[in-house]
Design brief:
The chain is of the alpha+beta class.
Amino acid sequence: MAHVVIENVYKTFPKSRQVHGTKENSAAAEIDHETAAVLKRINLTIDDGEFMVLVGPSGCGKSTLLRLISGLESITGGSIWVGDRKVNDLPPKQRDTAMVFQSYALYPHLSVYDNLAFGLRRMGADLEKTLPNLDAGVNPTPISDSPANQELERLLTQSHWWEKPLVAITRRLPVGLRYVSEAERLIDERVRAVAKMLQIDRLLSRYPRQLSGGQKQRVALGRAMARNPQVFLMDEPLSNLDAKLRMETRAQIVNLQRQLGITTIYVTHDQVEAMTMGHRIAVMNQGQIQQVASPLDLYNRPLNRFVAGFIGSPPMNVMPVQVQAPFLLTHPDFRLSLPSHWDDRLLPYDNREVLLGIRPEHLSLALPAPKNIHGQITHLEALGSETYLTVRTEALTLQAKISPEAPARIGDEVWLAIAAEKVHLFDPITDRSLWNND
C-alpha cells in the first residue's frame, strides 16, 4: 500500500470565446482563447491505508482531482506522488492505482469471471494484444509493485510462446476444455477469492445484462480489487443505486477497505456518504480545499461558513447579529448571552455585526422569553424518529429538529430556544469561523 501526496496541484482547461465581426465585415471572426482554472493549488496528503473522501457540490473539481491522480488527465502544475514515486509523467497503467467509475464500465460480451480477470490478464504485454482494447473511460491496468503481482507478471511474460495464444483461443470454450497455464491458475485463484469476498461467487458465469445494479457495482469493484493496487480511486460509485442498496453497498465498501487496508480516495457529492465512510474528509468548493478533518471535526468545528452549511442536513441556520459586550448578541427577534469563553474571540467585534450559525438540532421548543425566537410553523416533516420544522419570523426562516412526540402542527405559533453553547460565529466579510481562525 502507499500514501498519496498532492503538492500545489492546479489544473486549467482552455475555453474559447468567439467574437463576431462588425457589420462591415460580417464574415470576420476572432477566437479569444482563455483558460479556466478548475483546481487551484491543491495540497493534500492521504496516509497509507487511509480512507479519504473528497466531497463538495457539483463542479467543485473533486472528480477532476481524482482523474489527475489516476493519470486520465494531465496536470497543469504541481506534483503528485504515489508512495515514493512522482507520477506526473507516468501513464495510468504504471501508477499502480485502480479506478471505479460512476458507470460500471463492464464489458457486456464478457462474463462476470472474465470481467474480473480482464485486468490481471493485461499484465502480460503480449497477451494484451489478444484481448479487446479498453473502451474510453475504463482505467488501464496498473503495473503493481506488490510481490503477488510481480509473480503474476513474471508468469505472464516468461511462459512458453504458445501458451498465451492458446489461453486466449480456448477462453471461450467450456471451463473443462480450456487450456489453463500456471499464470491462469494464479488469476483464477485471485478472481475466485475476490468474488467470494464480494459475495458474487455464484454470479461468475453470468453476463452484465443478467445482473442487477448492485451486482454490477460489486463486479466493477471486484475488478479493481483483483489487481491488488496500491491505491483505490472511486468516483461516485454508488450514485446509480437506490437508497436501500446504496446504504448496504456503502457499508460493504467500508468493511472491505478495512480488511484490505488499501489506501482509498472516494469522491461523492453526498455528505451522508462522506460522513459515514471516510477516516477524513476533504471538503471542496470552486476548485479549492476548504477543510480537511475527521467527520465529527468537520461537523462540530467548521473552518468557514461554506463547510458549516454544506456538512449537515438540514443545513445550519445562519443569521446576522450585533455584538454587544460582554458576550451579548442581539437581533430584532432575540437577544442571546454567550458563555465566557467567547470573550477573546468577540473582543475585536464589539459593536459590529457577525454571523451566527446554529444547527437545527440545537434549536428547541421553549416558553416565551426575550432570548427565544417567536415564529410560526410553515412546514413540517414528520419522519417517525424525528420531526423537522420550518419556522418563519418577520426577519428569519429557520429549520429546527424536534422530538416526534412534541406537539406541533403547521400554523402553530412557537418559541424556539438557541443552545448558546452550540453556536458558531463567522466573520461577515471573510466567512471564517471566529473560533477556528488561528
